[in-house]
């Protein structure tokens, strides 16, 4: 599907040329938008717990705005433009202005969907796939609506300036701007526009030499007198770069390193980080126990001074806080969207425990010491003592960031996971909405598989969600592939992320998915979730069928021009599809065909009689290889293995590039979620929910910052303007 749009130059009103725009670069008017239901869970909280959840939510929402600045140079400007429009006119009120501006009903809906997408993704790049999306209406119509809005009539100068800042990148689909990436491969606001992969690698060497984590940093490069100068900017409320006794271990200041100069500075996103800290401080008064108080104190220290070590300390207290009624986590967490794979995107979530499902997960954890020996690697690759994680099912109240996952396994700090543990979190009310599938929109399956798929997809996810990380003794372990003593391991300040960098996230997701596929064949795991006999076999079948179908769908997230993957999970699932196709013996079938509509189509099949034999053996061998390369820091071997299976080829049995075109032709847009707001009225907390629509999603954001919206918007514009020259974007703020 393609969209015909007019591409304009500057502010002229004449249409210079018409281009066909691939449909992957806009959001369809009928995109799924659902409200996350948390009403019952929230009302079951005590008044103290509601206050705790409220202030944690406020901290999360303020911090979530950081993602605008992390995503693209123009995202914050577009966000402010939309907020100014909708704060004065709700979507229903703005409709009259749209009609007066000459927009059709379809064009106005496209405008609302674009705005909802910008809010849901916290930027103008999809959180899942990292491709840019542009408005599905002509640029001249978008501008006309801005000019017709009450916001423009009240402040024409400011609105015209704001439009001038973002009108070009709003619609631009130049090759580099089509996706997130580093250097010529795409856009990234984690790095100044003149940085490339070599700069990211060089900066990592410097950070390792100073024992500094990249998680909460951005990198800016300049050249002074022919010498490379890098600014490592730390996210912190504090702007003072001098040492703060007892508060931070960060080595701020200038450092000569090889032939360059590095300056480590505090103060990135300072205004927003201060807002986060203020609300965490208020949440402390309602903490349920000492672990929660200490956790929040360390988070505040981290966000005040830019110390990742303090955040790690807070994470230790978080792990110790077993089975809380109100669960939360906040900070620079996932590194999926950093093209180098080391910098974390800000996120914060607040959720309420679902006790019934959590009991099942707890039973699974209790069985872990029996189940772990089932994994296909030698005992020497296991830790001496298994640290039981907290594994809970939660109903989300707030999830601020670029998107909402169905489950989380955190913290991501390997040293903490190895020695102190982690938590598994399944987000129940997200799953309930995300896996609601319409049969007529279910692609690439045979008709007799579709009903089974719809019935068992949700239950199969609960069984599939199983992750683990293990340690080893490098002086005694032999490589099970070669029989020789291991020859590589992690040294000094090296970590999984810094060592495996660009493939680390996807590689680990692939390993986790393989563990889930492998262990779901265990009848004990299935029985924990209430699946016995024929039902258990259906769950296994749909779990594996879902994986191979997801591998095919993953092709949407591959960019042929740069030969790169834009989404870690989907790359991982494509790799697993390749492994299972390679296993042969008719386990997985994949054939191209013509659909009932006369357009190219494909069908993927799975022989359920061979899952426990051919399938299990293939995953067993592959999982062992993944584990060995990871555990021994064998980057060369791990990269060769993973990139080999990640290759999207045209030769061989399957033409994956051609299949990619079919997948794009029949893709369904990812759902968006509408979240509630909380407000304090008197001594109580009030929950306000919104309808599951583009208008509802927009209104939820308009009402998210009731007390200081203008100040927040002004600060976002100032932060964006300060760095605009780093991406050759000039704005007059």
Automatic annotation (TrEMBL):
Binds 1 zinc ion per subunit. Zn(2+) binds at residue 509. It comes from the Eukaryota. The keyword Phosphoprotein does not apply. Its EC number is 3.4.14.4. Its cofactor is Zn(2+). The keyword Hydrolase applies. Its main location: cytoplasm. GO terms for biological process: proteolysis. It is found in: Cytoplasm. GO terms for cellular component: cytoplasm. Keywords: Acetylation, Aminopeptidase, Cytoplasm, Hydrolase, Metal-binding, Metalloprotease, Protease, Zinc. GO terms for molecular function: aminopeptidase activity; dipeptidyl-peptidase activity; metalloexopeptidase activity; zinc ion binding. It catalyses: Release of an N-terminal dipeptide from a peptide comprising four or more residues, with broad specificity. Also acts on dipeptidyl 2-naphthylamides. It is an enzyme of class 3 (hydrolase). Belongs to the peptidase M49 family. This is Dipeptidyl peptidase 3.
